[in-house]
Amino acid sequence: xxxxxxxxxxxxxxxxxxxxxxxxxxxxxxxxxxxxxxxxxxxxxxxxxxxxxxxxxxxxxxxxxxxxxxxxxxxxxxxxxxxxxxxxxxxxxxxxxxxxxxxxxxxxxxxxxxxxxxxxxxxxxxxxxxxxxxxxxxxxxxxxxxxxxxxxxxxxxxxxxxxxxxxxxxxxxxxxxxxxxxxxxxxxxxxxxxxxxxxxxxxxxxxxxxxxxxxxxxxxxxxxxxxxxxxxxxxxxxxxxxxxxxxxxxxxxxxxxxxxxxxxxxxxxxxxxxxxxxxxxxxxxxxxxxxxxxxxxxxxxxxxxxxxxxxxxxxxxxxxxxxxxxxxxxxxxxxxxxxxxxxxxxxxxxxxxxxxxxxxxxxxxxxxxxxxxxxxxxxxxxxxxxxxxxxxxxxxxxxxxxxxxxxxxxxxxxxxxxxxxxxxxxxxxxxxxxxxxxxxxxxxxxxxxxxxxxxxxxxxxxxxxxxxxxxxxxxxxxxxxxxxxxxxxxxxxxxxxxxxxxxxxxxxxxxxxxxxx
Length: 517
Known about the structure:
Layout (H helix, E strand, L loop, with lengths): L9 H7 L1 H21 L8 H16 L14 H13 L14 H25 L1 H13 L1 H5 L7 H20 L5 H17 L6 H17 L2 H30 L9 H8 L8 H15 L16 H11 L5 H18 L2 H17 L14 H21 L4 H20 L11 H19 L14 H17 L36
Helix pairs in contact: 1-2, 2-5, 2-6, 3-4, 4-5, 5-6, 5-8, 5-19, 6-19, 8-9, 8-10, 8-19, 9-11, 10-11, 10-18, 12-15, 13-14, 14-15, 16-18, 17-18, 17-19, 18-19
């Protein structure tokens, strides 16, 4: 398992590893073909899908973020992707209720899913080498739910791509003592794009920069450098989301972090009679919604899946006519907390425990009514191997275990947040590419560590200060005694840094120190 010294240089990878490059191209083409082939096979368009495409239509046609009574309920990343695809293709607006459509937004969706294959390869190969990278990319290419979601207007594919790229960039910022400010800010920007696509990733704004601080501090024995790296990542994320937060807050007349979805989603999640499940809640409210709004679209004569959730929120508003709809939802949420969380704590705890397994227990079925279009056996095998790989990497991964821990913390955070809110198998789609990358990469990291191919020590880090100084003295003596040599392998690596630069955060690179690959 040869070291991939620079994933930043694709021509170098093609020259040095032609077989790896050829296999990666084949896997990517396979995954891309399966995703594009799935377009046009959908049998329904969910309320969320109609909303994302409806917003995109208005962005394309009227240059306004508008759809329904509360367009800010949905994060902006995916609507902007669809609007851009329509703009570039000269199409739109599109019918957001058409089943089995083939159009520019869906082609963009499939393309994003194909890019995720390459992103997964990059992270897994960086952790464990070329073979784990290819295996992780293959898992991503053939996993049924990631193929089926390409025919939808959901936000999971773009959110999953940005999450993998953000974790990879943050790992690189931690790993490289010669890191630049631009690398740290870029990692933060990718984290910001992740949150702009999926607002349930918002907690990562605190979790990932905090872990970066601790890991850089532990690796380089410099609390100041750790704070600097963490602050730059956080700054990049905040700068990326700030224009949108300012716009959303101006529209709602109050501070709005990305979307307005919090209280309504939490009301569904804490409604004990439905087990915190949206589909069951819809079934329980169907008759009352139809009686109250007999002439409204998606109120009567439709399945619970097709019923517009916003009708239930209007129903709640009728219970509190003196309040606005948002205030009415908040009042019902407070009642849920009082009557269920505090009034029936045992049953409420059981509901949360059941929700925690619902995200990962079964694969997303593809959105079809009444049938499961994805393989349960494939789901259990691929995800089971990935989870075992995370365990192997955390136990035997050597110094690379810090990066596996960071990715696992991201997965745990998003899973925990979705357990508290609406918990369905679809929620796993935004995390599955990262799970494959870090899981299979974890196996590779463990094998590399056992073979003595661990991550190189950082300057003055990962070892006692005295040992670091002794090693530095020994290196200095060797440099005086030995003439400089150039090797063919160094031709494809980046030029050596000399001295220090204001553009670098932390210590300059030492001789022999390379980022893990």
